[in-house]
Structure formats: structure tokens, C-alpha cells
Amino acid sequence: MALSHADVQAIQRLKHEYCFTIDGGEYESWAGLFTEDGRFIRDSGETFEGYDELYAFASEGFDDAFDHSAHMVTNPVIDGGDGNSAAGEGDDVAIGRWYLLLFYRRSDGDVGWTQARYDDVFHKIDGEWQIAEVDLTYGVTRDD
User: Fold this and answer.
1) Where on the tree of life does the source sit, at the highest rank (predicted)?
2) Residue 108 gets which letter from DSSP?
3) What confidence tens digit (pLDDT) does each residue in 12-54 have?
4) Using an 8 Å Cβ cutoff, are 96 and 8 in contact?
């Protein structure tokens, strides 16, 4: 199902807010971008579901790992839910694919970067797009 241009722009802005809030340490806002039962899935299979788990992941795990980070997402491909995936279908469902380039400085001072891919599901609730699922698959990593 085709999305309107306004919906695609709203989803892109949502993903950009996702990047800015996690990098800025605004973990309450970051977790608030997800649906009530939203999930973050790492390629290891580790899953964080719901506001409390998402907030804990960000505020404890992410904050402990990095002194500084900059998430950059590129090459967005955003489509309406077509019913051929677990995402569902309809005007209130969208799927998105993005490349991630994450630059970071670890607590020990080491600097590095990671390339990964996001496969996301978005739901439109009460006229606002929210993240229903983030599935992260790591690619190349470079640590100094």
C-alpha cells in the first residue's frame, strides 16, 4: 500500500528523532517514540520490549558503553504495510529499511564506528507515527 508523501516525511523525522534522542541521552524521549508494546531486537536475538525495558536498555546499556555517539541513518526505503509481512497492512502500518553508521567514543577513550541495517515497523496511532519494532543487524565494525 502506498504511503502519502507526508507520511513518509513523518516517518523519516521519527527515525531522525530516534537518533538524536539516543545520542543526546534523552532516554525517556527515546523510549517514548515506540508504541506501548514496541520492541528493539538485536541481531543476537536479545529483545527489549515495552517502555520500561527500552528505557533500561538505553539508560543502562547504551550509556555505559559510550561517552559519545552519533547515529546516522541513510538510504531510507519506506513502504506501506502490504500484508506480506508480520508488519500487517493498511494506512496505519509502514515498514522501513535504513543503513546505520554509528560513530562512537567508548568510556575508555577508544574511538570506532559500526555499520548496520535497521528493519523497522511503524504504526500510526491517533494520527501520529510511532515505532513498533526495530530489528538491528550489524555489518562492519571498526574499533581502535
Assistant:
1) Archaea
2) T
3) 999 999 999 999 999 999 999 999 999 999 999 999 999 999 9
4) no
